[in-house]
Design a protein that fits this description.
alpha+beta, five-stranded antiparallel sheet, 14 helices, 33% helix, globular
Length: 442
């Protein structure tokens, strides 16, 4: 299986291997017109329609037994506007390709997540984000969107359009695939810049005690806590005047490939075979990565390869609730008898104005829990989710959770605005699937 989702014998599977679907047919449109025709034909045949990217979501957000739209041919840069400082890109373009093209043109996105395998539309539609004090999710950098709606028409929207177009823009930047199929996205870009990354181990209690200061002093702060230990690895990314000092090839291979992927993979296998060894492995793992500093262009600092397959749950809690939430999570793991072999990732985002963004209207902190693929994760995720929801947590739309429309109506002040728009754009629920029925209501 490649790094993307796969389709064998007509069955589609996601990257994490925890979701499978058997669509009635799969379509690879080579143009917006072909996509619109596929949508109209599906409606005539009484079939639901879903578009799928690289399958990096752990939920069944893209699963369907109807028509599965695969956007591999809808890729490439449509336009770079240096006056407006924007780039318009086809929806199926992988983030890694967009990043490479922008860098060649002396441009960059302001912020990004830590994986760049996803398509631009898949990443934005589910709310993919990195970490940032002032700079928010990838979707928050969108300036305009084009999508094919349920009647097969092409709708363009931005914050400058009519009242209806502005309403669509507010929602469709993180549209969950519920409002239409995104065909092109216009992102704000800026001149290419350098980031200096400083990675260093730090005790768990020290990070929590100094968290507000670490957040305030750094443009991008994140850390990983290793369950069963009092250890974390912190990362601060800040803009730099240079010079470029990338990680050396040998050091980069040792830290990023050998330790973070190779040895980590072996440690995961060992932990899965003998769960009792996990706390000892965690103590060794948490001390394996030493402090390092390097300076490079943004995507080489923000993103890293992820070759060890896992399943993930992530919740956004109010930033002020982060330290309490993490202490409760650590106490739960310590007393539970659970054996957790994957570090817990902590990031932040400022409030934004996107209807169903996990940071909509509130400064947020993200806590992501992972389990190695093939390991039972339900007990850990259920206990973690209980803690996150007690703090009015909002789950990442593309990661494992059990919440439903009733819960979302409570934690998203603009939830009704999104569902009303969906009623207007897709009254027959052409883009419906089981996941959307649960999270948005029938």
């Amino acid at each position: 299986m490649s790094t993307t989702a796969s389709a064998k014998n007509g069955t589609w599977r996601n990257w994490g291997g925890n979701v499978a679907a058997r669509p009635a047919r799969q379509v690879e449109p080579a143009s917006v017109e072909e996509l619109a025709a596929a949508v109209r034909r599906a409606a005539e045949d009484g079939l639901k329609v879903k578009a799928v990217g690289t399958g990096h979501s752990f939920t069944s957000i893209a699963a369907t037994d109807g028509v599965l739209i695969r956007p591999q041919l809808l890729t490439g840069i449509r336009n770079i506007d240096r006056d407006a400082m924007t780039v318009t890109v086809e929806a199926g373009t992988p983030l890694k390709r967009l990043n490479a093209v922008l860098a060649r043109e002396g441009l960059s996105l302001t912020n990004m997540g830590d994986i760049m395998e996803q398509t631009v539309s898949g990443a934005t539609s589910t709310g993919t984000h990195g970490t940032g004090r002032e700079s928010a999710s990838i979707a928050a950098q969108i300036k305009a969107l084009e999508l094919v709606t349920a009647d097969g028409s092409v709708l363009s929207c931005s914050e400058k359009g009519t009242e209806e177009e502005r309403a669509v823009f507010a929602a469709a930047r993180i549209g969950l695939g519920a409002l239409g199929i995104v065909t092109a996205i216009t992102f704000a870009v800026e001149p290419l810049f350098l980031l200096t990354a400083r990675e260093e181990p730090m005790p768990f209690e020290q990070v929590l005690a100094e968290f507000d200061q670490l957040w305030a002093e750094n443009e991008h702060f994140e850390f990983y806590w290793f369950p069963h230990t009092g250890n974390t690895n912190t990362k601060r990314n800040n803009r730099s005047a240079g010079p470029e000092q990338p990680v050396g090839q040998l050091a980069g291979w040792f830290e990023d490939e050998f330790l973070s992927n190779g040895v980590f993979q072996v440690a995961q296998w060992a932990g899965r075979a003998a769960p009792a060894t996990i706390p000892a492995i965690a103590r060794i793992s948490s001390k394996a990565l030493s402090a390092r500093t390097y300076t490079d262009i943004p995507y080489k600092v923000f993103t890293s390869p992820r070759r060890v397959r896992f399943v993930e749950m992530e919740y956004a809690v109010p930033r002020a609730a982060l330290t309490d939430t993490l202490r409760e999570l650590k106490a739960m793991v310590d007393r539970s008898g659970l054996r957790v072999s994957f570090p817990v990732e902590v990031r932040t985002a400022p409030a934004d104005d996107i209807t169903l963004s996990t940071a909509s209207g509130r400064d947020s902190a993200y806590i992501a829990v992972h389990m190695f693929r093939g390991t039972p994760y339900q007990a850990y995720f259920t206990a973690a989710e209980r803690i996150f929801t007690a703090h009015e947590g909002r789950p990442h739309w593309g990661k494992v959770h059990t919440r439903d429309a009733e819960y979302f109506a409570e934690v998203y002040p603009r939830f009704g605005e999104f569902t009303a728009l969906r009623d207007r754009l897709d009254p027959e629920r052409l883009f419906q699937n089981d996941y959307l029925r649960r999270v948005l209501g029938a």
